[in-house]
Amino acid sequence: MDPVRNPFAPGAGQRPPELAGRDKEVDAFEIVLERVARGRPERSLVLTGLRGVGKTVLLGELRSMAVRAGWGAGKIEARPDADLRRPLSAALHRAIRDLAVRHRNPERVDEVLGVLKAFALRAAPDGAKLRDRWQPGIDVPVKNGRADSGDIEIDLVELFTEVAELAADVGTGVALFIDEMQDLRPDDVSALCAACHELSQSRAPLVVVGAGLPHLPAVLSASKSYSERLFTYSRIGRLDRVDADTALLAPARREDAAFDGEALDSLYERSGGYPYFIQAYGKAAWDAAPTNPIGRRDVAVAAPEAEAELAVGFFGSRFERATPAEREYLRAMAELSEGRDEPVVTSGIADHLARRASSLSPARDSLLKKGLVFSAQRGQIAFTVPHFGRYLLTQT
């Protein structure tokens, strides 16, 4: 098979050649765009799932839909312990620029940009010297008195209101997309929920679309009890057999190629239906196949190469971030779950390692903060990365 024509593309956040199995989420967001633009009440969205299921890809697809609909759209990636003001300011700056091309009053656009600049400049710590202050790159005068109180909850409500009103002027909306949403600081999560709540009550045309790990709903709920009713939650999981086959067959068909039935059987068994793994095995199988169609033997020949690449780029890079104590904890999880993608009881890990549970708490808490594990439910812990346990059992 010609490697130049290989359609498969494993990569972090990289859109696959066929976005299979996500029609439900795409169709639901289409309705949200229409309803909000018409002044109808609609909740913001939260996508959750393990790593490698395509949350970032889906977030990008929804953002593209918003742009095509004439919305202002901005995207940020939350980072642990990082302030929200800077990335949020950059994202909303982009959204306002999207709206500006349709707005007939440049002075009104500059006024909102001035409010945004005032909000952004509050990112500098009190007492910071001028040379140390972050400059947001917004070339308009600061408009003081709105979104610059220093209280993130007050400022977000005022800023979102200004931007939403600008969108309403042109009969459209604003969508803010937040990846890795579970990494927002508690104060920022609380402020974001409060702002979404305030705007939803006034039916302002602004929605937040967040994506994060499976415990994100618990993070939001711990911040504001009403967050359970504030967002529409969608769990993004692995693909079923039909959609997994489509993810392979549709791109191949466009290149006048195919996979036979046995190859598809093998690919689904090896990938588990996880989109990232489908792309990795599909790419390797294409490159290994001497002729068309791609068969089971080609998949078997290609599998070690795909697994070696996953071991370095997908699993290994995460494992390397763990300290020796954290690696011990991770291996115990893998041994107890026998390499399956299932949660384990935290007390069982202490028993397995013949240690006191309290002595393992620092490693557990650090792994939670690094996003390598999550609390599936009280007293249980699970990997955020599918097949991670299986990978760990192969490491000496």
Automatic annotation (TrEMBL):
Residues 1-21 are annotated as: Disordered. Residues 168-334 form the Cytochrome c domain. Keywords: Heme, Iron, Metal-binding. Pfam families: AAA_16 (PF13191). GO terms for molecular function: electron transfer activity; heme binding; metal ion binding. Signal peptide: none annotated. This is Cytochrome c domain-containing protein. It comes from Pseudonocardia dioxanivorans (strain ATCC 55486 / DSM 44775 / JCM 13855 / CB1190).
